[in-house]
Amino acid sequence: MAKSASTFTCTACGASHKKWAGRCDACGAWNTIAEEAPLSQGPGRNLGAAKGRAVPLSGLATDEPPPPRSRSGLVELDRVLGGGLVPGSAVLVGGDPGIGKSTLLLQGAAAFARAGLDAVYISGEEASAQVRMRAQRLGLTDSPVRLGAETNLRDILTTLDRERPDLAIIDSVQTLWSDQVEAAPGSVAQVRAAAHELVTFAKRRDVAIVIVGHVTKDGQIAGPRVVEHMVDTVLYFEGERGHQFRILRSVKNRFGPADEIGVFEMTGAGLAEVANPSALFLSERGQPVPGSAVFAGIEGTRPVLTEVQALVAPSTLASPRRTVVGLDSGRVSTIIAVLEARCGIPFAGLDVFLNVAGGMRVNEPAADLAIAGALLSAREDSALPPEAVLFGEISLSGALRPVAQAENRLKEAQKLGFSQAILPEGQKVEGLSGMGIRRIADLTGFVGEVFGAG
Questions:
Q1: Where is ATP bound in this sequence (predicted)?
Q2: CA nearest 162: which of 201, 123, 115?
């Protein structure tokens, strides 16, 4: 039998290479390719003449009810999970160091345990005494959560197979190691093997498993991307260190809507749920000032109002600065180019600063009109109407395009006391009364009607 050769794998994206190279062809990262021993010999070049067993096939129609869900009582956590925790599901949670992942999951484990689930918390990064100190600080010492500290994957799976809990939390997958893989903990091979074994165990034993994953400096979950494909749900815990708000965002969910968010506030007693994030993100708005626009957005199934802030000032640099926080910088550059080309409003020689208040991150194209409104308001030193919300997508021709779920956006704005809305001309709004709606066809008309210039 021919000896199996070592493989060369990129530690950033998990791509395999035949030989070592300084740069990964798949993701473009430098000095990330490492030599690894193969996981197993694997099959030969072909399967040979022996036949396997036939796999039973079935139709798409079924009388089986949807999988039951267990609710924790934490409304924001249940919302992001799609309505509750599904037995046998695998959930991957990532976030920056110190953002509150362990705090969130310890609170979640305690909530599920109080709701009747048998919850086990396995810590590979902290000793049991450290986790108990956190539980004491959070007031969770009376919850029936069972705690363990271990990094050996074989011992963890043996324990879970013997105890058969309803929920197991593994913190974190980068600390686990398998005795069948000749690599250091945290390497691509170890992370891939640990994730595969944990997901397989969850499906086979009908145990819900929550896995914590580290993130890279770019904010992506570290390790091979195949880990995100293996699990059922991928959650990101986001937030800025300078803000007390934390956002749990679902980017993949096989049992519920993706892009759903749950909002928490970091307090001295742990994470507190925020039932009305729109009021929270707009709570510090004072008198109307130039450069402020309120955007009515949609995060998953939830309407959220956020404040887009802009500052435009003369630049002393040869290349003016473009600083964007909480928005897509490429999208902002496109909107500035459309304002210059279609409306004749130059931004050359001007520094532009844009920010979403409260540490929120907005990725919707529907925010284009609010971004343009904030930029124009800051440049012209003229405040937008304080009772108005804006949303609409801007095309490269300068036309305003309608967006989805307009009624939900306007109902949320109306609930918070806004009485006007500036929308694209083709936007359909039904079943809404008491809201003054101004429809505008293109960006030129928006400049002329709102700021009194053609």
A1: 95-102
A2: 201
